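Researcher: Quick test of sequence recovery. C-alpha cells follow.
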C-alpha cells in the first residue's frame, strides 16, 4: 500500500492510459478522483477503482473549457481535501485530424494546445499553493515520445507535448525546495482508441495493413498496453521517488533507442 489514503487526481481517466493509472493508484491504497468528458466511461473506471478496494470520485469535465480545472480541483478539495498527487493525463492526439503543417486546421491546433498544454498548466496552478503549504506533493505529466521527436502530420500534438516537457522542467525548478516533485512519463505507441485511429491513418497513407503498421511501431514488434505505463506513475507518486524531479522518462518499447 504505497499510497495509502493519498488523495490523487487523474485526468482523462475514462479509458486507456488514464484508466490504467487510476486503477493502479487505487490498488496501492490511494483515494482516486477521476475526470473525463464521458460519464459512462468514468462509471466504468470508478467501478474498477472500487473493486480494488479504494474510494473513487468521478467528476465529469471538459478540460478544453478554461474554467474547468478550478472547478475540478475545488470538487476534490470539498470532498476529500487538497490534491496530493496530480496526474495530468488528459489529451487529444493527432489522429483526430492529421494534416501536414501547410494545410493544418488552425482551430484544431488551438484545441490541441488548450487540452494538452493549457489545461495541465491551469491544473498545476490550482494544486500548487496547497502542496507548497504542506511542503509535499507529486505532479506527473503524461507526455509522449513526441515531446522529444516530431510526429509526421501531427504538428499540434508534437508541439503541445514538447511544451508539456518545458512546463514540467520549469515547474520542477521552481518547486524543488518545496518538497514537490514534478516528472513526466513519455509513452511510445500505446494500444488505445486514440492510437487505433492513428494506426489506421498511417496504414492508409502507406498502403499497408493495420496489423503491419501496429507491428512496426516499436522494435518489440507491438504496441504497448496501458497497464505497462501505470507502474511508473505509481512509482512517481510514491515516497520512493522523492529524489527524482524534472525527469522525462520513456516507456516506449525501444523506439527512441533505435533512432
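Model:
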Amino acid at each position: 500500500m504505497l499510497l495509502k489514503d493519498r488523495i490523487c487526481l487523474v485526468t482523462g481517466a475514462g479509458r486507456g492510459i488514464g484508466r490504467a493509472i487510476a486503477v493502479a493508484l487505487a490498488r496501492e491504497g490511494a483515494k482516486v478522483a477521476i475526470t473525463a468528458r464521458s460519464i459512462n466511461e468514468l462509471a466504468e473506471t470508478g467501478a474498477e477503482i472500487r473493486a480494488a478496494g479504494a474510494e473513487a470520485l468521478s467528476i465529469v469535465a471538459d478540460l478544453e473549457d478554461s474554467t474547468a480545472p478550478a472547478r475540478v480541483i475545488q470538487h476534490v478539495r470539498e470532498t476529500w481535501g487538497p490534491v496530493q498527487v496530480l496526474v495530468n493525463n488528459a489529451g487529444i492526439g493527432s489522429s483526430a485530424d492529421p494534416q501536414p503543417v501547410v494545410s493544418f486546421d488552425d482551430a484544431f491546433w488551438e484545441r490541441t494546445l488548450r487540452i494538452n498544454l493549457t489545461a495541465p498548466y491551469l491544473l498545476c496552478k490550482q494544486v500548487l499553493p496547497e502542496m507548497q503549504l504542506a511542503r509535499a506533493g507529486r505532479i506527473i505529466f503524461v507526455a509522449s515520445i513526441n515531446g522529444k521527436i516530431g510526429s509526421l502530420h501531427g504538428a499540434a500534438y508534437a508541439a503541445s507535448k514538447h511544451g508539456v516537457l518545458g512546463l514540467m522542467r520549469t515547474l520542477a525548478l521552481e518547486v524543488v525546495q518545496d518538497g514537490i516533485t514534478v516528472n513526466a512519463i513519455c509513452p511510445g505507441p500505446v494500444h488505445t482508441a486514440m492510437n487505433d485511429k492513428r494506426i489506421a491513418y498511417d496504414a492508409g497513407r502507406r498502403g499497408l495493413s493495420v496489423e503491419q503498421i501496429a507491428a512496426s511501431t516499436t522494435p518489440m514488434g507491438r504496441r504497448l498496453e496501458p497497464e505497462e505505463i501505470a507502474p511508473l506513475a505509481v512509482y512517481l507518486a510514491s515516497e520512493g521517488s522523492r529524489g527524482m524531479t524534472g525527469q522525462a522518462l520513456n516507456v516506449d518499447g525501444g523506439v527512441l533507442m533505435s533512432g
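The two ends are 38 Å apart (CA to CA).
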